[in-house]
Each structure stands twice: as structure tokens, then as C-alpha cells.
Amino acid sequence: MPNPLKEGGDGLRSVSVDCLRPEDAAVELERLAAEIADHDRAYYQQDAPVISDADYDALRLRNEAIEARFPKLVRADSPSRRIGAAPVEGFAKVVHKVPMLSLANAFSREDVADFLDRVRRFLNLSADEAIEVMAEPKIDGLSVTARYVDGRFEMAATRGDGREGENITENLRTLKDLPDRIKPKDLLGGGVPEVLEVRGEVYMAKSDFRALNERQEAAGGKVFANPRNAAAGSLRQKDPAVTAARPLRVFFYGWGEVSEIAWKTQAEFNESLVDWGFQANSRARLCRSLDEIMAEYVRTEAERAALDYDIDGMVYKVNRLDWQERLGQVSRAPRWATAHKFAAEKATTVLKEITVQVGRTGVLTPVANLTPVTVGGVVVGRATLHNEDYVRDKDIREGDTVVVQRAGDVIPQVVEVVADRRPAGARPFRMPDECPECGSLAIREAGAAAKRCTGGLICPAQAVERLKHFVSRDAFDIEGLGAKNIEAFWAEGWLKSPADIFDVEGLTAKLEGREGWKEKSIDNLRKAIEERRTISLDRLIYALGIPQVGQATARLLARTYGSWAALKAAMAEAQDREGEAYADLIGIDQIGPSVADDLLGFFAEPHNRDVLAALESILDIQGMTAPDTEGSPVAGKTVVFTGTLETMGRSEAKARAENLGAKVAGSVSAKTDYLVAGPGAGSKLKKAEELGVTVLTEEEWLDLVGGR
Ligand code: IVH
User: Fold this and answer.
1) What separation in angstroms does the CA of 549 have from each of 257, 472, 552?
2) Ligand 1 centroid, distance to 103 Cα (angstroms)
């Protein structure tokens, strides 16, 4: 759909603010108010932005600039007086009985070889044992789960954050591909499980997408950027009748909760899906070697454009179910599967300006502001330039024509400069010595890849980024309080520190009477915040935004210390960086002195302590309940593995011990309960003997945990 404002088809838009006459300014402010309101609705309520962030920011900036020059013309419905937009009235929440995981990514043959090697090592398979892998296209749609009880469709939900999604039962019911009843035929003779949750991807065929857009355009309706957006917009409709009118389809490829599993391999499951009446992708192939996998990858990529649905890579799954079970998962991705992405899509455009962004930890990142360009179906207006070395090495300058690349869900990047299109006089980029946000000195420490603002707590950019991180999906995940609203509330001075979010009455009182916020939406926000007063320990730790402490480390800390009180006490005790508490901290597998340093630094900082004290008094922090380890002889015990293990790989041993409630440490100390030593054990064994730690062979360990 042509956008006359964006294209500059309108005479006024290209007039510099300084040259506007008052009557023109009034006309333009009116149009900007309407246009920005449309974009807000598209962004906040329909999840379907139609312009890039950069273009959106440009509209708001122009609005502000005109208002600054003509303060008398500021409108009642001006975007500058409107704070974000109210959240869309949500769907009911559904907690997944079995979490919906995501996949680790591979980008090259080496990555795929690494995946197979990891599987081989974990399962302790000999080099000549073939690992059968199911290779299937990775559908670029939206993942859903559909639950059948006694063969009848009962409930469907989106993936959400993997733990909890949205109930879209009535919407999914309208899909022709979705059987209302499962066909009772089952080649395995196991019948249909009483409870069967199937998982798959909802998508829109390319041909249907084009036809839909034509219809929408003719009717003056919304035109979608790509099939995935169209599928998302169509699925998340409040009125299922709208979904029913949209040509959505679904491929199923996995399962969630199942009362009885009769299949022994992924291949058997895929066959059962078809028997039961589901659509499964017919391009799935069983491969027995890296070469076969790669051949399948190449073949599919070559045929990609001719397929009537978008795919963004391949998914490889270990075929044997008993192996899948042993491999289990790490963080939120299974060890038994990986996604192999197709090569990134690229486009050429002009780099208008390089600006510098300040992140949550003060890191300065150069950003390319581009003439918007479509890369793989998505409009890109900004791309990362990583850091100053990257810009210097590639000699990227303002005014250059550059190649932009976008792969999957990663941030678009500028990959190279088209040398012969450089305009005369283009100057090399120089990273500022001062933070562009707060003016503090920006320094680059020895060994660091980037300059960092030294403003710390006085730097507004860091503060607002920290708040955004605090409410992000894997942290507090407060519905209706996304990044844009945080920015808006921050600009108003309503939010300074995370604890301010929980002054619910104060916050919601300010929203009353604001355009775009109705009683109902304010009430929803109030409820969403109240719901998050109860928070799990791992989410809280992650939300704090401590450098180097991502989700996996946060979970590790939560599991190790169990409660907020214990964690805090340990962080206080370990400040000496020499005693037992410190040894325990760096003894945690995967936490070394560098992570420990960032953690301890965070807990020692006075302002952080204030924030933590405030949060403590208003939150209900749920300790981490260890996995169901009742009757486990090793629950709470600290175990160290060393030497070669015979029946399983080191990672499997570790994962199994943790599932039984044991802590696995990387080094032996007085706190170690067991050292499991295989052949070739060296210094750890010696140390254990000196300290009188119980030493077990692998066999004895398996006897102890009932693993044989
Ligand atoms: S298997 C344990 N198979 O990709 C997760 N996923 O990046 C098992 N996806 O959330 C996922 N096509 O939504 C699997 N053939 C396929 C897929 C597929 C698309 C999506 C799925 C998943 C995401 C992970």
C-alpha cells in the first residue's frame, strides 16, 4: 500500500520545520496526530507495525520539533501527550503442562557436525554407531499446541514464553487443517492416546497470502508485510469469525503431554500424525550421516522458493525416542534437536547516519540508520554496527551504500560497503569520547570490545534500558508494559526504578484521562502488574540485569541457593573473595571468577542495594523448588565428576545428577560429598583423598542413584 507521507508525496513533509508557516504547521500536526495514532494501534494492538522503528521515531521527532516552534498549536490529541497505547484485551492464559521449547541454531556444516558430536558424546556412542536424524523443513509461522481428550479437540494455545501461552481454542477450531476428532486408526496398534497434545506451526500459504492482500487492498483494509505477519494477525483475532475468514493452515511435527506414548521414533510419530488425520510435512526425511543431512539441506534450500509456504531452515531431530529422553534439554532447548538456518537474506541500501546507542550496561553501540529497505519480507530501517572496531575494519561511513543482512530473528546487520558508490567527502566514523546520552566520559577498558559510558546510575539511557530489561519477556513479562510504554512512562518521570512499577495505584492514577487508556485497559494493566508481585527467584535474578548473568546463569544461581535470603547472604559473605562462600560461588559449574566478579560487584553497589531492598519489601519471591527428588539419595549433595565415564557422557551424568537434586560442582572442596572418578582421574582425585571426600566409581555411583 503506498504511503503518501512516507514517500514524501506530500509537499509539506519535505519542508524543514524552520520554514513552516503557522497554517501549514497546524495542518501537519493534525495529520501527524492521526498517523502516529494509526501506527500505535498497529504496533501495540495488532502486533503488526507497518513502518520501521526509525521511520516511526522520525514522525514523532518531527511532531515534537513543530510543537516546540509553535507551542500554541499543540493539539489535545497530540502524540506527545499520549503515553503509549493501552494493551489489547488479552486472551486467557494457559500454562503448558509440558513446556514448549525453542531450538538451538546451527549456521554451517561445522555447527551441524558439532551437534552430532555433542549427541554422540552425551550418549557415549562409539564412533561407528549411526545416529539417525529426522530432517524436516522449519516452517516460518507461529507455534501452537492442540490438545485432544478421548480423540476430541479440546483446547489450543500459543507458545507464549514457552511456559504459558494464550488460549486460542476457538480460533484454531476454524482451521480446515485441524481435525475436530482424531481418526481412531493407528498403525502401531496402540489406539489413540486418551490425552494427546500435538504441536505444530500455523502458517499462511504464499498464494493465499497474495490473494488475501489483494482483497484487503481492494477493500481498503490492512495489507500485511509477509505471510508470517498475516498468519499472526489472523490467529490472534478476538473474533474467531475473522480468523475463520482467513486462509490459515497448520503442519504438526511434535507432541506435548501424552497419556501413553506408543511410538519409538520420530519417524513413527510422524506416520501416526498422518494416520490420525493431521497434516504433517511430507518433506521430512530420515538421514543417517552428516553428508546425508547436508544433502537434504542443500536440496530443500534449492527448492525453497518454489514451495508454497515460507521456511527459514531445517530442523534435525534425533530419531530414537529413548535417546531423545536421555538427551533431555538444556535451558529451554532440547539437546536432541537443532535448527539449521538458511543463508541470511541480503539487500542494498544507503546508510544515512550513524548514531550511538547506550545499552543497559553502558556499552556504546554504533547503529546504522538506513533508507528503509525490505530484507526477506521485513522492512529494515536500522541495523547494528556492533562496535567501533567493526566500523573501522569495514570502513563504514555515513552516506555509503551498504549491504544489509537479516537472518531469522537476529538483529539486522551491515555486512559490507559497496566501495565504488561512496559519495565524495564521506568521512570515517569516530566513536565519541562522551556518552551521547549523559555526557559522561566513555572509556574502553583494556581487552574490552566496546566503549562504555562511565555515568552508571546517572545515565538515563542505562536506567531506561534496565527498566526495559526488567519487564522483558523472560524477566517480569508484564502484559501491557512493553518497551515503548516504559520509554513513555520514563519520559514523563513516572518510573525511575523497578520498584516504582509496583506503585500500582500511583501509576494507574496518572493514566486516567490519558488518550488511548480506558478504564478497562488501566484495570488490565493494574491486574497484570499485581499478578507479577509473585515472581520466581530465577526470573528476578535475570531481571536485575547483572552483566554476564543471562537466563541460564540466573537459573543456576536460583537452583544453587534456593531462596532469595540465601542468595543475598551468600553474596554478602563472598565479598571477601577468599572465604568459603566465595569458593562455593566459583565452585558452581559454569560460574568462574569473572561472572562472580560482576555478581559481587552488583550486590555491593549501594544504589543496587536500595533497589533490592525496595523490591524485597513489595515482591513475593518464590524460591526454587528442587526437582521432585523425594527419596533421592543424593538430593542436596554436592557431586564432582572426573576422569572418563563409561556408560554415559559427562554432560548426561551431570544432567542426571541435577535431576535427582544433586549439585554438580567443577572442583573438589571440603563441601564436596562425592567424587565420581573414572579411569584417568588425576588432581581432583588426589585432592578428594586428602580432604576425606567419599570417592565412588561410576558403577558405585549408578548403584547409589539406582541408575542400573
Ligand atoms: S520441533 C522442542 N520442528 O521452530 C522444540 N519446530 O526455533 C521442537 N518450528 O518453537 C520444535 N518448524 O515453532 C520443530 N519442523 C519443525 C518446525 C519447528 C518450525 C518452530 C517451532 C519452534 C521453533 C524453534
Assistant:
1) 32, 15, 8
2) 7
